[in-house]
Amino acid sequence: MDVTQENFEEVVLKSDVPVMVDLWAEWCGPCRLVGPIIDEIGAELAGKVKAVKVDVDSNPKIAVDYGVRNIPTVLFFKNGEVVDKQVGAVPKSVFMSKLQPLLG
Predict the structure, then answer these.
(1) CATH of domain 8-103
(2) Are 38 and 54 spatial neighbours (Cβ–Cβ below 8 Å)?
(3) Is 31 known to be catalytic?
(4) Which residues of the chain have a pLDDT value below 50?
(5) Which of 56, 64, 72, 95 is deepest in the core (most CB within 10 A)?
């Protein structure tokens, strides 16, 4: 799911489940590696976790608001707060290990 500045609050901050927010850009090579992993996790954990994407070129305010300087960056939200983050392309297992404590 693509998130924009207009729906970020509703989709991410007001979510009743943890949210993985993948901040990426079309021109970013490592982002293209992370994207399919985020999609896969979102499908596997549907109903338990939301996995969304924010194109930083189209939605720069979100990146600025959360101090994102490098992409890909995946922010992990719970109850409207950033509780963890991962910068750079990493294996699926790294994302899963960061999600585990949020699933409680």
Answers:
(1) 3.40.30.10
(2) no
(3) yes
(4) none
(5) 72
